[in-house]
Amino acid sequence: MRFRQLTLPLVAVAALSTMAGWLARRSLPQLSGDLKLPGLLGQVEIFRDDWGVPHIYAGWEEDAFFAQGFVHAQDRLWQMELQRRAATGRLSELFGKRTLAADRLLRRLGFHRSAMAEVERLTDGPPLAALRAYCRGVNVAIQQMRLLPPEFLLLRHTPEPWSLVDTLSWGRLMAWRLSSNWDSELMRYRLASRLSLRQLADIEPLYPAGQPLTTPAGAFAGEPIGDLERTLAELLPFSAGAASNAWAVAGSRTVSGRPILASDPHLGPQMPSVWYEVHLEAPGLRVAGVSLPGMPGVMIGHNDRISWGITASMVDVQDLYAERLSPDNPNQYQRGKEWREGTVVREEIRIKGQPAPRIEEVLVTHHGPVVGPAFGIDNPPLVLSSTSIQTTNSFEGVLALNKAQSWDQFRSALTKWEAPCLNFVYADVEGNIGYQLAGKVPVRGKGNGMLPAPGWDPSYDWAGFIPFDEMPNSFNPPDGIIVSANNKIVDDDYPYLLSHEWVDGYRAGRLTEALADAKRVDVDSAAKLQLDLLSLPGRELVKLIEDLLGERPVNSPTLDLLRTWDFQVRSDSAGAAAYGALRPELVRELYEPKLGIDAKYYLGARIHQLAPASMVLSRLTGSLLRILGRPASEWLGEGNDSWRTAIVRALSRSDSYLRSRLGADSKQWSWGRLHRLTFKHALGEVFPLNRIFNRGPFPLGGDVDTVAQAAPDFTNDFAADLWTVSYRQIIDLSNFDLSKSIIQTGQSGHPFSRHYFDQGPLWLKGEYHPMLFSRMTVLTHARHLLKLSPA
Fold first, then answer.
1. What is the pLDDT of residue 187?
2. Which one of 314, 336, 523, 702 is least enclosed by Cβ atoms within 10 Å?
């Protein structure tokens, strides 16, 4: 009897496993053979290499983009479905009330409304033809699937046809994610009610003096921007938390005598990766690099003449406005001495499991949509102006960039790039290197974008955009080095306001220092630099603490480890664990007395539903060094004793935390035991789906200030789940076949595919795979060939 009781469950499990395996195989895409498909103009070859990267050869440009849409859908259909639903505010149709708050905000922002307006304005030409071909490829791939990917089966959901609006909406959401700073405006808006002007200026994480600029100092002439205290004072009376590296070195500094370009964008880790590697060839088009599933073209990469990398510019292209509504008509808002009629948009949000939709009525003023009250403050309503919401057509810029053959054509392509505002680093086969800021940047009539502006005063409106020819750029600088790491771009002589929210320049400083010291750079030394873990601010912080503590002894294992630390934020480093644990305790000791619960925003606590963390976190270390290096009586009182007491308390709290998490023996502490990375899938929040879809956790080195960046979540036990290196690319302009790259996870979004996580172990070890380009090398590494022809 007992044998039968044991046997029946085992048989059931075996049967379920067999069925699951059969379903998995049925839902995997076809990678080899011949397919006749509608919508093609001619034949297409799709070679898949050892790492699952498709190399697409087409006789027509449209067919190349058709095939790109086809392979995107084959490998990442669930990811694309999730992304378009996020961009259009339709997540609750799948997930119920859990995502309603996000949908409400997304519907208010109105990326789908802006995308629909753009579709109506598109005219016939290569960009529209490419977009249409891409959408055809996606939809043909869906129709051709024998079985939908597992996520659709689990949710019993069938995807709708892919449309131009889906692609353009997703592009806007990505642009918004890469240029968001309105959360820091909200944070200051809250802090301004409890801090004095002096205190607010003291705690503002300004760009530290002496850190690198992307363009040479003095490159632009004009009136200096006003100081922080004066410009904040203009706004205070009314109001009574991705990053990246990209760099290029000239041939004079390389082994080959030709430039090397490196790029590693930093985004939130996810499963599958945000990036998808691809190689496209057709007459007039030959380009390789990474793309975004849901969008045609290559975002970062190279063609047969030029290469480029991108970083978030940190330029302020968003402003909040406080509007005054008419007491007699809530749809009217004040503009000068008049009342204007706003536009009311009715949005229906369908919610899984509920018979009636949620109705969201969105008031849109000439500034933008009302996004809601901040922190429960009902008056005044806040409106968001953003270049990502306005009608834009950056895909034309992507297509032109993919085809550009020279510095002049590269810059010409970027005149068509509207959003997001990005730093572009450039190198070409002729030996040139360059830098260009691209994207619409508003010219403000008044104010500086640091706090919500009075919407009723027309003098605060945008007065157009900075002309492209006046945007910062650099070409073949004398030292042969260009570095962009979200650091400050220009000095204060630049005639336009770009931003006050540059990321601390420590990564840029380390890159500049290392490249200036390098005798000759090659692909291997470039890879070593991309993996660099030296903490420049860690060295400064330890010295400041030693100075403030003075000669009196302090019994603290955290302090003992810091004194012997080599300033490398390695995963196996005890000193790095001490440094990581101490910073949030310093924030709590120094900031909480004045800020109370709002100190959490300096540790990265999220401010709204669409951001995993406050970007103030990326400037936390500079803010701490600023406060510790210039003790202010307004914060802790006169003399060093108050500061010493606060630091001793922070050390004691750090000791207690590390003992509770890592044990009593400080020699066994390590950063990687705290700083752990899990690649999470949207369905991986519950058991047992987490075992199927997620990967990790893995110990990870680095922090927010190291070149190999991996931001710790100070509000979640230091988890490395905020943002980290999402893609590494190194381009050798002497021979493109010597280039190499790596994404975080793998090409496939299918959990039963061999390419679901095959790049993950390489990425974790700091390794790469070859970035194949010539047809000969592609054929050498080809594992599959799928031939497409017109039906």
1. 72
2. 336
